[in-house]
Amino acid sequence: MGPILDSDFRRAFQSPNVIIQRSGIQEGMKVVEIGCGSGAFTTYVARAIGPKGTTFAVDIQQKMLKQLEAKLKKRENRDIENVKIYNHSAYHLPFEDESMDLVFFVSVLQQIPDINKALSESRRVLKTGGTLAVTETLWDPYYPICATTIKQGIAAGFSLSKLDGNFWHYTARFKK
User: Fold this and answer.
1) Residue ranges of domains in the chain, CATH in brackets
2) Three-state SS sequence of the chain
3) Which of 46, 101, 115, 138 has the fewest CB atoms within 10 Å of its CB?
4) pTM, whole model, 2 decimals?
5) Residue 143 confidence (pLDDT)
6) β-strands 126-137, 100-106: how paired?
7) Which candidate, 59, 60, 8, 31, places its Cα nearest to that of 125?
8) Is 17:44 a contact under the CB 8 Å cutoff?
């Protein structure tokens, strides 16, 4: 599954650079990617935040994280030194309270059985004023309309700060 998720085909529909821009990811940030899988977006985020930032790649599937580790060892990614990999659930993130600038999900939030619990945990680790970004794409079998994502974010204590994209591909950005 990892090779499909981390493919040029997927990047044609979910451009990493568009997701980075819509999510509000900026240089120097401490960013948590929940459900990073094999790293379809991880290396792009790591480069966008630069050496002063850190990407915390979190996934519950060890097999996918092994693929990410292998990807980071490839020649074209050897310059990336700001990725830390964690085999953890979205319910129990291994980070201090209010320690992160941004948490993002790309086509993964709806696969989590207890969405409110995962979003509440994301809220815990975000700094005051931090950003939660949720990106969804219609081709995903778990695709929710944006109104659903907005309701979920608000129910977890966030306020909607920006909605970008269209019906087929959107990013909802929230503030803590």
Assistant:
1) 2-175 (3.40.50.150)
2) CHHHHCCHHHHHHCCHHHHHHHHCCCCCCEEEEECCCCCCCHHHHHHHHCCCCEEEEEECCHHHHHHHHHHHHCHHHCCCCCEEEEECCCCCCCCCCCCEEEEEEECCHHHCCCHHHHHHHHHHHEEEEEEEEEEEECCCCCCCCHHHHHHHHHHCCCEEEEEEECCCEEEEEEEC
3) 138
4) 0.92
5) 86
6) parallel
7) 31
8) yes
Q: Which two tokens stand for residue 24?
A: 């509000």
With a cut of 60, say whether residue 12 has pLDDT above it: no
What is the reported pLDDT for 5? 52
Spatial separation of the C-alpha atoms in residues 119 and 91, rounded to whole Å: 8
Tokens standing for 101? 């600038």
pLDDT of residue 16: 85
Paired tokens of 77: 């990614």
